[in-house]
């Protein structure tokens, strides 16, 4: 009978600090935005703040410290992760916006009216467009 094998292993564990908010959801009536932590536990909701428009979509960056709310008329309000308004801008060239997403650089909007996914290049850094117009880059061009 041979002797039992013994060995030693070293394991390194790195713990990353998660942000308190992991993802955001909008209710179907377009009046509330719900925040959830990394385990899915609900955190306190906040009211949608797009004046005169029904809230149709919400997106956040990976850190959860910047949130974009899309209104039914194409208005985008930009908030921090605690719902403080940072600014807003109007997405041009949309006929029936339905949802919003970001990769942290660009803003992408689903437009059911034209059956397209519309890209707003470098718009994730914009908090207020003033009077400037944004070039719309369709995903199929």
Structure description:
This protein has 141 residues and is mainly β. The protein has one domain: TolB, C-terminal domain (Neuraminidase), CATH 2.120.10. 0% of the residues lie in helices and 38% in strands. The chain is built from no helices and eleven strands. A four-stranded antiparallel beta sheet has the order 4-5-6-7, with no helix packed on it. A hairpin with a 5-residue loop joins strand 4 (55-60) and strand 5. The protein is elongated.
Cα end-to-end separation: 71 Å
The 3D shape can be described as: elongated
By DSSP, the count of extended strands is 11
Mean pLDDT: 76
- What order do the SSEs take from the amino end to the carboxyl end, as H and E? EEEEEEEEEEE
**Estimated helix fraction:** under 10%
Count of discrete structural domains: 1
What is the CATH architecture assignment?
6 Propeller
Cα radius of gyration in angstroms: 20 Å
Strand proportion: 35-45%
The CATH homologous superfamily is termed TolB, C-terminal domain
CATH topology: Neuraminidase
What is the number of helices? Answer: 0
The biggest beta sheet is recorded as: 4 strands, antiparallel
- Classify the oligomer: single chain
């Amino acid at each position: 009978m041979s002797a039992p094998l013994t060995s030693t292993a070293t394991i390194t564990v790195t713990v990353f600090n998660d942000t308190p908010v992991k993802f955001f959801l909008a209710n179907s009536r377009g009046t509330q935005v719900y925040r959830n932590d990394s385990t899915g536990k609900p955190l306190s909701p906040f009211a949608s703040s797009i004046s005169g428009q029904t809230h149709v979509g919400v997106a956040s960056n990976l850190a959860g410290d910047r949130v974009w709310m899309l209104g039914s008329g194409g208005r985008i309000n930009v908030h921090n992760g605690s719902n403080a308004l940072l600014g807003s801008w109007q997405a041009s060239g949309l006929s029936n916006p339905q949802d919003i997403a970001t990769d942290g650089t660009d803003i992408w909007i689903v437009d059911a009216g034209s059956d397209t996914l519309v890209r707003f290049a470098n718009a994730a850094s914009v908090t207020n467009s003033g009077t400037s117009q944004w070039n719309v880059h369709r995903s199929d061009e």
